[in-house]
């Protein structure tokens, strides 16, 4: 019965993934597949404004005193768009299909001293705006700072752009491309605190193009696929592959030679004298499969790590089939929330099954620990950062309704699937496969040199996988915490596979050396060594923040380090699980290959 349920779950997850793929692809093809007639109104939405160098710190467009239409109407948004900080509202510009407009006045506005100060502060911080026209993104800066030849910041001049020109390309009855540029001669001086009269203006020019509608999004993915970028990506891949192959090949050769000598030696010892004292990893055969301390926590970590690994695979599948095309607003966040909720059954099954294999009794407590091991720290981080965003009045602050929706997903999908998976795991009746018997009392571990301790071993284990991915990390960070577009998911997937292979191999190698030193407490060590790459990634966060980015301010800093801590923790659990599974396979294999009394 349990077997049938488990297979049903697998089929269910497959169906869900297919629905996500086809649903997202349908959104891609149909969301903006509009045909327009001449003079017909095309929707233009103003989204947000914010400092260019602080991607998380964004505000509503009309938080700045721009011209506002008579009735500001909010666009209904999906869950992922809200999580992405998008807050689309109707814009004051009228861009009717094929209707050119020469300089038209949006509104005449008298800015008060306070409004001038707000605009000046925004210009000083390099504020940009973002709009969407027929689901195509538009950017621009709201002003400029004149600091040429001025060493003293008090001498800087601040100007506000008052004229916005739209260049729109169409192919017959469809919008293909839109660009917005500001008139460098139409400026308003806002350097001083005084009332200023501004005529906000715009103009529109329509042009015909041969680009088909199906290819209109390719413009936004070309930046990450330019030849020099591709050369760097492929260089990083080749560099990683060569480094990994050389090091893993070197370690594999040594390991195989040593193991072969061990097997020959142990076979010879058995033939020569039965009473001869055993040494090395065979000496601890009665302790190597002794269950770890804190086995409930260990099983919960394995369950969470397995779920996160499954989540990563599903996300890569969606990326490779083209779901996450540029500016498919919120698609990634929606996929993360939905797939994480649907894969919670995997965490429950893995944790409960392994916990029962380790002869654990309180499986309900183990299930609660599994459910909160990753979600708990993520929830605490979210509560703190959402409070910061609310204090800043930023769009990153989630509305109450969205928080309720996420809670309902957790309560009605995540938790029930976790419990069902746990029940299936508990009833699986699987036994732990140990090729040797465990003795009643544990052997004493000999005194080992300092470099065989947990922290030095973790440092060694994390360095090699990190060295294989660090070049690609820059592009990922520049996309997540910047304005670059990342679309080369095939290369990213190759890097991910390399990361998994290297993590597994380095953990196996260190586990062997640990057992050869007659240290049988390898369970937690293999998990910590496998997951240590997550700590290296967090160390890279420090380097990126201070050396490669211009992020500043309490909100952006807290968002960067807060959410990156959660992401690195997820990598720690996921790679820790990979490391332990590889080590367990290796340990079972070598002890199965020798005769132990």
UniProtKB/TrEMBL annotation:
<keyword id="KW-0967">Endosome</keyword>
<dbReference type="Pfam" id="PF02990">
    <property type="entry name" value="EMP70"/>
</dbReference>
<feature type="transmembrane region" description="Helical">
    <location>
        <begin position="232"/>
        <end position="255"/>
    </location>
</feature>
<feature type="transmembrane region" description="Helical">
    <location>
        <begin position="297"/>
        <end position="325"/>
    </location>
</feature>
<dbReference type="GO" id="GO:0010008">
    <property type="term" value="C:endosome membrane"/>
</dbReference>
<protein>
    <recommendedName>
        <fullName>Transmembrane 9 superfamily member</fullName>
    </recommendedName>
</protein>
<keyword id="KW-0732">Signal</keyword>
<dbReference type="GO" id="GO:0072657">
    <property type="term" value="P:protein localization to membrane"/>
</dbReference>
<feature type="transmembrane region" description="Helical">
    <location>
        <begin position="527"/>
        <end position="547"/>
    </location>
</feature>
<keyword id="KW-0333">Golgi apparatus</keyword>
<dbReference type="GO" id="GO:0000139">
    <property type="term" value="C:Golgi membrane"/>
</dbReference>
<dbReference type="InterPro" id="IPR036259">
    <property type="entry name" value="MFS_trans_sf"/>
</dbReference>
<feature type="transmembrane region" description="Helical">
    <location>
        <begin position="489"/>
        <end position="515"/>
    </location>
</feature>
<comment type="similarity">
    <text>Belongs to the major facilitator superfamily. Phosphate:H(+) symporter (TC 2.A.1.9) family.</text>
</comment>
<keyword id="KW-0812">Transmembrane</keyword>
<feature type="transmembrane region" description="Helical">
    <location>
        <begin position="559"/>
        <end position="587"/>
    </location>
</feature>
<feature type="transmembrane region" description="Helical">
    <location>
        <begin position="398"/>
        <end position="420"/>
    </location>
</feature>
<feature type="transmembrane region" description="Helical">
    <location>
        <begin position="458"/>
        <end position="477"/>
    </location>
</feature>
<dbReference type="InterPro" id="IPR004240">
    <property type="entry name" value="EMP70"/>
</dbReference>
<comment type="similarity">
    <text>Belongs to the nonaspanin (TM9SF) (TC 9.A.2) family.</text>
</comment>
<feature type="transmembrane region" description="Helical">
    <location>
        <begin position="367"/>
        <end position="392"/>
    </location>
</feature>
<keyword id="KW-0472">Membrane</keyword>
<keyword id="KW-1133">Transmembrane helix</keyword>
<feature type="transmembrane region" description="Helical">
    <location>
        <begin position="331"/>
        <end position="355"/>
    </location>
</feature>
């Amino acid at each position: 019965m349990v077997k049938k349920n488990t297979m049903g779950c697998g089929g269910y997850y497959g169906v869900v993934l297919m629905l996500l793929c086809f649903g997202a692809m349908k959104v891609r093809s149909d969301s903006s597949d509009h045909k327009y007639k001449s003079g017909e109104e095309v929707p233009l939405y103003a989204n947000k404004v914010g400092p260019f160098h602080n991607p998380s710190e964004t505000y509503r467009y009309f938080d700045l005193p721009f011209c506002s239409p008579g009735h500001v109407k909010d666009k209904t948004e999906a869950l992922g768009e809200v999580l992405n900080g998008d807050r689309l509202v109707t814009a004051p510009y009228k861009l009717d299909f094929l209707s050119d407009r020469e300089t038209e006045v949006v509104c005449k506005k008298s800015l008060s001293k306070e409004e001038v100060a707000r605009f000046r502060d925004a210009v000083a911080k390099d504020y940009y705006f973002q709009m969407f026209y027929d689901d195509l993104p538009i950017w621009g800066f709201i002003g400029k700072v004149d600091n040429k030849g001025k060493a003293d910041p008090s001498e800087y001049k601040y100007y506000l752009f008052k004229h916005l020109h739209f260049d729109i390309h169409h192919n017959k009855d469809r919008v293909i491309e839109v660009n917005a540029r500001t008139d460098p001669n139409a400026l308003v001086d806002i350097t001083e605190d005084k009332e200023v009269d501004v005529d906000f203006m715009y103009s529109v020019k329509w042009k015909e193009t041969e680009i088909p509608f199906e290819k209109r999004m390719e413009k936004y993915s070309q930046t990450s696929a330019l030849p020099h970028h591709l050369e760097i990506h492929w260089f990083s891949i080749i560099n990683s592959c060569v480094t990994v192959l050389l090091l893993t090949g070197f370690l594999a050769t040594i390991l195989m030679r040593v193991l072969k000598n061990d097997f020959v030696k142990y076979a010879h010892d058995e033939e020569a004298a039965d009473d001869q004292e055993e040494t090395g990893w065979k000496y601890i055969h009665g302790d190597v499969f002794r269950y770890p301390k804190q086995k409930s926590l260990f099983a919960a970590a394995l369950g969470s790590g397995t779920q996160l690994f499954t989540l990563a695979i599903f996300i890569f599948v969606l990326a490779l089939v083209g779901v996450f095309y540029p500016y498919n607003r919120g698609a990634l966040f929606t996929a993360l929330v939905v797939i994480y909720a649907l894969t919670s059954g995997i965490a429950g099954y893995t944790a409960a099954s392994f916990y029962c294999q380790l002869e654990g009794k309180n499986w309900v407590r183990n299930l609660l620990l599994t459910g909160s091991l990753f979600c708990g720290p993520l929830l605490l981080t979210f509560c703190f950062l959402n409070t910061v965003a609310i204090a800043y009045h930023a769009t990153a602050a989630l509305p109450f309704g969205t928080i309720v929706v996420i809670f309902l997903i957790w309560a009605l999908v995540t938790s029930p699937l976790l419990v069902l998976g746990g029940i299936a795991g508990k009833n699986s009746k699987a036994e732990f496969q140990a090729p040797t018997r465990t003795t009643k009392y544990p052997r004493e571990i000999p005194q080992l040199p300092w470099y065989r301790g947990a922290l030095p071993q973790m440092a060694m284990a994390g360095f090699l996988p990190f060295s294989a991915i660090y070049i690609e990390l820059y592009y990922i960070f520049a996309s997540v915490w910047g304005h670059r577009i990342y679309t080369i998911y095939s290369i990213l997937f190759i890097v991910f596979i390399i990361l998994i292979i290297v993590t597994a191999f380095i953990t196996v190698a260190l586990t062997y050396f640990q057992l050869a030193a007659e240290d049988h407490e390898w369970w937690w060590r293999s998990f910590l060594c496998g997951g240590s790459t997550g700590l290296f990634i967090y160390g890279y966060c420090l380097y990126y923040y201070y050396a490669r980015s211009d992020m500043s301010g309490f909100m952006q800093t807290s968002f960067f380090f807060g959410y990156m801590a959660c992401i690195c923790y997820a990598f720690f659990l996921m790679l820790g699980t990979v490391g332990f599974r590889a080590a367990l396979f290796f340990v079972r294999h070598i002890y199965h290959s020798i005769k132990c009394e």
